[in-house]
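Example record

The entry below shows one chain as it appears in the dataset: sequence first, then structure tokens.
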Amino acid sequence: MKKVIIGIQGGAGSFNEQAANKYIQTNKIANAEIKYLYTSDKVLSELEAGKIEIGVLAVYNRRGKFVDETLAALMKHSKSDVIDMVAIKISHHLMKRRDAEFANIKQIVAHPQVFDQCKENLKRKYPDIGTKVLSGDLVDTARAAKALAEGELPPTTAILGPEGLATIYGFDIVENNLQDSDNNITTFLITSA
């Protein structure tokens, strides 16, 4: 049986991975394989090139609104169709490397949507720590978490994202549920060529 390759706008432990797994389970796709592509543009490029069969892209969050990265990619790539949508509840957790003292944290790294969803709590609870959106694949919070764990980012960096990243990379969770809304739902597009 041929594998169904599902490309996602995220890395291991990302919300995109959670949305892809929900889609796989709901549709009982026994032969699915997730390919981590980190950006919306890469997902749609690989879909158009026939390198993946299905793409998963975050498109809308009740708090952060539309995901600009995905909208820009959809405008650039017009050869894909939306075949389904998946919505999941999102909660963001502040985490750091175990060998780092929280008093030494200088920046929090995450996807821009994460900062939009946690804006008020970050301003109130951590006003003295800067926030930073990285570029390229590192725009993805899960990819940035991997970079932090592997020493590509300084240990003075904290990650704000899915709780599962703490398990995957051995991070300490500093604070749970920093999203401004308890009902923080994100919708993901399921696309095909």
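Notes for this example: The chain has a mean pLDDT of 96. Helices lie at 15-26, 40-48, 68-76, 112-125, 141-149, 164-169.
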